[in-house]
Amino acid sequence: MTTVTDKSRPSTGTNWLLLLLKARTFVALILVLAYFSFAAPNFLSAANAVLVSKHVAINAFLAIGMTFVIITGGIDLSVGSVVGLCGMVAGWLLLNGVDPGLGWSIQFNTFEIVLIVCCVGIFVGWMNGMLITRFGVAPFIATLGMLYVARGAALLSSGGRTFPNLNGNPDYGSASFPQIGAGTFLGLPIMIWMLIGVTLVATYIANRTPLGRHIYAVGGNERGAALSGVRVQRVKVFVYMFSGLMAALVGLIIASQLKAAHPATGEFFELNAIAAAVLGGTSMSGGRGRIIGTIVGAFVIGILSDGLIMMGVSSFWQMVIKGLVIIAAVVIDQAQSRIQARVALAQEAGMAK
Amino acid sequence: MKITRRLFVASSTAVVGLATAGLRPAMAQGQTIAIITPSHDNPFFKAEADGAAAKAKELGYDTMVLVHDDDPNKQSELFDSAIAAGVVAIILDNAGADASVSAVQKAKDAGIPSFLIDREITETGVAVSQIVSNNYQGAQLGAEKFVELMGEEGKYAELLGKESDTNAGIRSQGYHDVIDQYDLEMVAQQTANWSQTEAYSVMESMLQANPEIKGVISGNDTMAMGAWAALEAAGRTDVIVVGFDGSNDVRDSIQAGGIKATVLQPAYQQAQLAVEQANTYLKEGSTGLDEKQLMDCVLIDESNADKLETFALN
Predict the structure, then answer these.
(1) Residue A262's closest chain B neighbor by CA?
(2) In A233, A284, A321, B157, which residue has its Cα 20 to 30 A from B193's Cα atom?
(3) At A12, is the pLDDT very low, low, confident or very high (cuts 50, 70, 90)?
(4) What rounded mean pLDDT belongs to chain B?
(5) CB atoms < 10 A from the CB of A319, how many?
(6) Span A179-208, average pLDDT
(7) Looking at chain B from residue 175 to 194, which residues have their Cβ under 8 Å from any Cβ of chain A?
(8) pTM for the full model?
């Protein structure tokens, strides 16, 4: 360790290193992009860029919700199941409507279906939040429980079968349902516009609103935040509801893309979302993380898996590589905080002189 | 401590480097056929992929072997990637009869023909060929053997496949259309989702509730293996187990006097047939055959088990 003895030189060197470490997700993104442009046939094309973005979007929605939850120091394991449940609710509403048992049924148009499904997602998130804040259940356990409940509910809704042919019905105004996943606007898929919208809103919330500052405060020091007048419980309930809403959007998109709702949809999605958030620099212990970092993290994972698929790499290797990348991200994250501490120490020493 | 850390970083870099070096791009120039199946951790799907890949190489195509893990969403993404990679045909064992239609349609819209094996989809006219094993005929073969082994009477249990999979229903129907004509009583019927682990625990519970059962008929071989393991653990090797698929594991068990019989689905041959039809279609614009084709299954018991190797009878 030469930091303290040699004061003039290391600060530029470490500062440069620190900058590189801070931008590591971007560096990783550029690296995987460059590698696959070279190694995978047809990877570098506009059509493929849109395609990869569509695949990434699914994970990115969930990862944005997950980032808020993790910043407050929690975790949401239920999102994958909520994706499945919300897809099934959408399928049910499209095919059957709601039957109040009076010999007639209520049918919905696309907008109403989207609204109802979003409410289902938000409601599941609200229940997660209530379990965690009012009943003091640890987030890991509460959302693990919800993972099973939501998956079971999704399977029950159809008896384990798939809801087929979700093309909608023009008579009920639901014929536009497949457009959510397949439609385009100004040349870009609608789901990409949705992702851009959600990213902007989430970034705005995180950086420019009191709520955003409270989310960071709760994760940084919950007791301190509470003592300075932050309504900790409300903030926590909000992040789980937001996460539920993200899961609902993904459920809608997948059901619309496949024109079918499958109750097992979304298995392990929560783990991909956590991976994207962590890769983007979100700290699992809370208080630190950025939406844009998460988006970049989701792109790194997405490009990695799509590129490996196009190269024809065995799926078993794909899993190994994905795991190594995630571990490497956390190792580098630890290195960054050490160097950051060292720089701070050096600066303090410099000021004292 | 410093040194260990450096060593760790260096070694992990080396591992990643080696791994990347091992992954050379599988596709050179020329025409590529995509082969998409469920996960290769089930030897049945591995045999399909191997059979299709071997035939494709023989006919001069490159291959792109992909795995959808029975997830329709992942399957849809794989189709996107295959289309983007510019494949000329897709051989598919799909991830769900309803949920796969839109993916196959997507390929068709992009001008890429799909050839389905093992499982059907609910639409016709989207894929060029749908070659499936005659599950109903196979199930009847298995059931006839089962009835014979049971001595045409007694109590039995049934292990069902994944309920979302059409084959699970067809096989069960085939079993019952034969068994129900005899004096056999089904005392338990449970799904084990095609899974060996699940079949083990389901079998344990069934045995607990119905210790008097004399036989177990299973929707596939992996579940039969799970059930047999549970029966062995409980010391009930007298129970007759019949499976479906014709895997090497069950073949070995039959030869060792464990599981009594299974029904072979010619997976290897089926996949090869699909590639041959793809080749004909690409060269001549038509396969000259119906879209839906059935391949008959073969009963495997101790008399012919030694001829079975990776889902092909020699």
Answers:
(1) B99
(2) A321
(3) low
(4) 88
(5) 12
(6) 92
(7) none
(8) 0.78
